[in-house]
Amino acid sequence: MGSAIRRWWFNGHVNLALRLSLAMAAWLAMAWCLDLFQLGLLSLLAIPAVFISGIDQPSAHWLHRLSWSIPLLGGSALLFGCIGQYWPVGLIPALFVGGVLFGSLAAWDELSGRLGLAALVLAAMAQVPVGIESPWLFALAVMINCLWVVLFSDLWFRLQGDYPLRQALALSYRRLAVILASRVKWIEDPQLGERFDLPLAEQLALVRRYVGVSKSRNRLNPELYQAFMAAIDLQERLQAIPNPELSRQLFNAEDVLPSYRLWVAVTSKRLRQIADGLMTLQPLQADERLEAAEAALVAALKPLQQHQFSQLAPYFISNAQRISRLAQRVAPLYQRKMFAPDERPDYWRQWRLHFRWRSPVFRGAVRQGILLALTMAIVQWWQWDKGYWALLSVLLVVRGGIVDTRRRAWQRIWGTLAGLALAAALIVAGISGNAALLLGLLLVPPTLSLIPVHHGYSCTLGTVILIMVFEYIGAQGMAVMPLRLLETVMGCSLVLLGYRYLWPQWQGGRQAQLRQQAVGQLNGYLKLVLDAFSGREVTPVSLARARRFTYELGVALTSSFEQMQQEPNYSRHRDSAELIRIYKQTQSHLNALAPAARRGRHLPAEHSALVRQTLLDASEAVLSAFSGKLGDWSSELEANRQAMYRLTQDSEADRGSFILYQLNLIGERYQQLYAIAGTPAPDKQSRR
């Protein structure tokens, strides 16, 4: 029973709802004691801005970020509140300028972009207290409320043992368990492993950020740091498949498949146990079944260390042993530095570089400013009350691409419609006055818990809360329903039209740039591995960073391709899918070689010279081809690649030959990439 309660308490959505609900309740209690209940209630309009900006979550240079983030949010509330109260027509140009300036903050980084969006949300929220409270008082209350939520959240996280880091780590281990469990299906359907796993990439990015924050504050829990490093090692091991086609044949062998199924099932369950332990703060016990499953798999693989599997079977024996060790100990295979010192970016230079028309960040900011100004112009032309509803619809449905934006817009429309229907039924049933207010307050926690889950569901409950508040104020619930629906539909429609026709950022148009960046990063990773095998000094941190950046660009390629498939004027582009598959396989070969490179293994000088020259020439040819300078795959390069192949054939089956085997496969993958480079990247007219 206690374990179930702890698991419920530490559930990410429940914990979020409890944290924000308790912070809001304590804030209202303080406002009531100071006889400022109305102002305190209005200042809670800052909560969405806090949630969107992420200032309540740990981040790098947290105090420095707060020192300018909170004044920016308060300043936005003050400026647009004053304009709305004293010069309403001025909101049209002000929203355009604000949309451009705040939207362009995304040029710095993701968190800055979220802060810019939060400032625009507060610009819309500042229209709520117009005529009720002074803009100065409202802006001051907003700043104090933001600071209160941030301090309350920091205390909340500390009392729960670095909860954000634990949660992100737990989600990462759960995702690793899913990936490992899918390997059995991958044997039958190779298409399951062709693309990068986007959820795992997002979670590991969060983990890396939270670890960096805790490290900078000298509050990093050693246990959590060990779990983080083990997760990175597991990701590297699970991604490293030396020869996908031959590997499937190996694991599909009659004597191997049952043992492999058992080992996958036991190890996946162990990873889920690690996730539960991280979330509930429960200590882990050693799992004897894991050792037994590992021994059975090793025993099944050992007889196959001959003939066609002579290179693969020893590798997978070692890999299974290391994965089992990682899962059993929840600690890395070896200790090393994971973070290199980050240089403080030149924010002014970054902003100026993006403040030009060819930048998608600037075009997106201009589009956002136009949509906000147009929305306010329509609201004022028709003299609609509560125009901030339409502004919020414009701001809150916008996502990174047109596909996600379209999905979110429809979710907001049907969520609002469902919420209005439910609220109308409650009013007809006799819910009004204090009962309406009580119901609205009771719905706050579930609404908060649904925000990260589904925008439509959270809009449904949020609309019910809103109508209940109006019903409590003066039995106006039914009266505001048509306007709520009309402004929501209007705001979402403008966003859909704007993102369709105002300089849309089609993902197909990004493919050429992403391909070039990805291949360039892959080449950098390859060069580090070759340097290590040639006897040059290569630090583990540089290898880890190269693997990480290569992986992140693979994730970007996958995300762009999946959005491209659903955009207007696009359908499946065969070369894009094939590129992702080969890119991932090439990184998989490099990941299989990375442990040997870290341990300082060297190739003989004569072998190293041939391999290095061949693969560097191949990587340069591929990068030039993706840069638009397609030439011939030279006869000298092909002769060197064939010499590498003969060298691999003549070598004995040992660790050195495994390195040559993987490097030879990398040469084949680069030749396949070169063939793809001969086909132009998708553009707006691509229909293949």
Please tell me about this protein's structure.
- With 688 residues, this protein is an all-alpha fold.
- Among the domains are: 163-329; 397-504, no CATH class; 507-677, Up-down Bundle (Methane Monooxygenase Hydroxylase, Chain G, domain 1), CATH 1.20.58.
- Helix content is 75%, strand content 0%.
- Helix 5 (62-86) runs parallel beside helix 7 (110-125).
- The protein starts with a helix and ends in an 11-residue tail after the last helix.
- It is globular, with a radius of gyration of 28 Å.
- It has helices spanning 2-9, 12-33, 37-43, 47-53, 62-86, 91-103, 110-125, 135-159, 163-181, 183-188, 198-216, 222-239, 244-251, 257-280, 288-301, 312-329, 347-354, 360-381, 388-396, 402-428, 433-442, 444-450, 455-474, 477-501, 507-533, 540-564, 574-598, 605-626, 635-650, 655-677.
- The model has no long low-confidence stretch (mean pLDDT 85).
- Keywords: Membrane, Transmembrane, Transmembrane helix.
- Pfam families: FUSC-like, FUSC_2.
- It is a multi-pass membrane protein.
- InterPro entries: Memb_transporter_dom, YccS_N.
Task: Pick out its properties.
about 700 residues, mainly alpha, 30 helices, YccS_N
Count of alpha and pi helical runs: 30
| Largest pleated sheet | none
CATH topology of the domain at 507-677: Methane Monooxygenase Hydroxylase, Chain G, domain 1
Strand % is under 5%
H and E string = HHHHHHHHHHHHHHHHHHHHHHHHHHHHHH
What's the number of extended β-strand segments?
0
Low-confidence stretches: none
Query: What characteristic shape results from the CA principal axes?
Result: globular
- Gap from first CA to last CA: 56 Å
CATH architecture of the domain at 507-677: Up-down Bundle
Q: Fraction of residues in helices?
A: over 70%
Quote the average pLDDT. Answer: 85
Q: Which CATH first-tier class of the domain at 507-677 would you pick?
A: Mainly Alpha
Structural category is: mainly alpha
Could you name the CATH homologous superfamily of the domain at 507-677? Phosphate transport system protein phou homolog 2, domain 2
- The gyration radius over C-alpha positions equals 28 Å
